[in-house]
TrEMBL record:
It catalyses: GDP-alpha-D-mannose = GDP-4-dehydro-alpha-D-rhamnose + H2O. Belongs to the NAD(P)-dependent epimerase/dehydratase family. GDP-mannose 4,6-dehydratase subfamily. This is GDP-mannose 4,6-dehydratase. Keywords: Lyase, NADP. Residues 6-314 form the NAD(P)-binding domain. It is an enzyme of class 4 (lyase). It comes from Candidatus Roizmanbacteria bacterium GW2011_GWC2_37_13.
Length: 324
């Protein structure tokens, strides 16, 4: 009998890549969606898995719906990818961010505890929990948290609640502290996709400039398709644990911009980029870089797509979209 998995956030970036991976491994995949009048399945369409997922209705803000869902499905694995994940928006919608990112995981954990204690639970944690760090030049599982946004704060709550339910009730719960990961289906509001989309427009003569905020912020960027494999591996272990997942390389937004323009044959990118203060955060996170020794050693995971390959992949995808 095939395993079953419930994936929240199925319509986002990571959900389709994870669904694709699980389906290829023979899972029956249930995707949680809210009651929309017109759900957007474009990310699932991009990977060709829209019709292979079974969709179930529920809401991360409605505990009763999640209790009923877990009681009905008894899934082997639950991957909680649902979140208000846009950092800038979290400053403007701190309450909503907290409700979805903090209380949502708590509701799921309670549902598992009461109705399906054998279900394995994955919580999508984030490098934004580390925030302001000046030690060692990298972050690993032992690095203290110092979140610099409501988004980061909300994720710290969910992280510790996931640990608490593991230690208090013996549930199989794992945190994946994933550093920035991107793909051609990254939301257009995120800086990486904003860059590749803007570069594609400039290449095709559809735009003359690209407006950005802080070019000096550094991030550890990888490919979402690689990172969902790490999620899966965490729930296949004998014992649950928490893992940092990243490439171990740090690149600035400026480097991302340069690589994107380089991929279309433009070296003098500065004449197209305009710095706009409205895109800067109230509190910036200057540098994030993963030390992912544990996930490599214990799970045998490592990234396959390089930084340059990732940027080129995203630019080509946006060129193809506008080409159509």
């Amino acid at each position: 009998m095939s395993k079953t998995a419930l994936v929240t956030g199925i319509l986002g970036q990571d959900g389709p890549y994870l669904a694709d991976l699980l389906l290829k491994k023979g899972y029956k995949v249930f995707g949680l969606i809210r009651r929309y009048s017109n759900p957007n399945f474009s990310n699932l369409d991009y990977l060709g898995v829209t019709n292979d997922v079974d969709y179930v209705e529920g809401d991360m803000n409605d505990e009763a719906s999640l209790l009923n869902l877990i009681r009905m499905l008894h899934p082997d694995e639950v991957y909680n990818l649902a979140a208000q994940s846009f950092v800038k928006a979290s400053f403007e919608q701190a309450k909503l961010t907290t409700e979805v990112n903090s209380l949502g995981p708590l509701y799921l954990l309670n549902a598992i505890k009461f109705f399906s204690p054998t279900s394995k639970f994955y919580q999508a944690s984030t490098s934004e929990m580390f925030g302001l760090q000046h030690t060692n030049g990298y972050q690993d599982e032992k690095t203290p948290f110092h979140p610099r946004s409501p988004y980061g704060v909300s994720k710290v709550y969910a992280y510790w609640m996931t640990v608490n339910y593991r230690e208090s009730y013996g549930l199989f719960t794992a945190n994946g502290i994933l550093f920035n990961h991107e793909s051609p289906i990254r939301g257009i509001q995120f800086v990486t996709r904003k860059i590749t989309d803007g570069v594609a427009k400039i290449k095709l003569g559809l735009a003359k400039e690209l407006r950005l905020g802080n070019l000096d912020a550094k991030r550890d960027w990888g490919f979402a398709g690689d990172y969902v494999e790490a999620m899966y591996l965490m729930l296949q272990q004998k014992n649950p644990d928490d893992y940092v997942v990243g490439t171990g390389e740090s690149h600035s937004v400026r480097e991302f911009v340069e690589a994107a323009f380089k991929s279309i044959g433009i070296s003098d990118w500065k004449k197209y980029v305009v710095i706009d203060p409205q895109f800067k955060r109230p509190a910036e996170v200057p540098n994030l870089k993963a030390k992912a020794d544990k996930v490599r050693k214990n799970l045998g995971w490592k990234p396959k797509v390089s930084f340059e390959e990732l940027v080129e992949m995203m630019v080509k995808a946006d060129l193809k979209r506008y080409g159509k």
